[in-house]
Amino acid sequence: MMKKFTQILGVIITSSMFSTMMLYSGVANSSTLGKLVDDFSHQTNNSLGLPRQFINDTTAGGKTNTTLTISNGSMHQSGEIIPPRGQPGWASSVLLLDAQGLPKDLSQYEGITLLIKVRKGNLSVSANSTEVTNFDYHAAPVMLIADEKFHEVKLPFSTMKRAWSEQTPLNTKTINSLSIVAYAMQKSSFDYQIREVSFY
Question: pTM of whole model > 0.70?
């Protein structure tokens, strides 16, 4: 099951991160990075002052649709995943850590914390390293019961895996972004709400 998950996730991350690199234009850089990445208090920018990126599989031939609302300190995403033929479908939210895509040193942290509510669908989070050149970034699934409650979810860097490449430790001194991805192999709906993304 985990092998299947990592294979699916690898295709998704490759597509979403390639699209992000094509779409992004830089803003002011920051020399320091604290624990908080995004508390969704700003309509368009994360807590580092960098614009959030939203991409789905329509860039790869899919027909996924997403409804996005950011208000009252939370981001709510829902929609229907309609995958491209023979590929997984996905909808990705990318939180940049640096305006120019330069690596940030996160070695003082153990992993990523989410304050999140999942109503339906599959979610994963990846920590995107500048050392990874084939877009097969280290990722982990978000495992939650759909119970209409917000949960604090901790994803250790040490447990994140690559999909098809050799399993190498994540170098936490080289992270330039995080991706939150809803995904599915066949037509299905997703719905989640997130209040905070941070490091611990």
Answer: yes
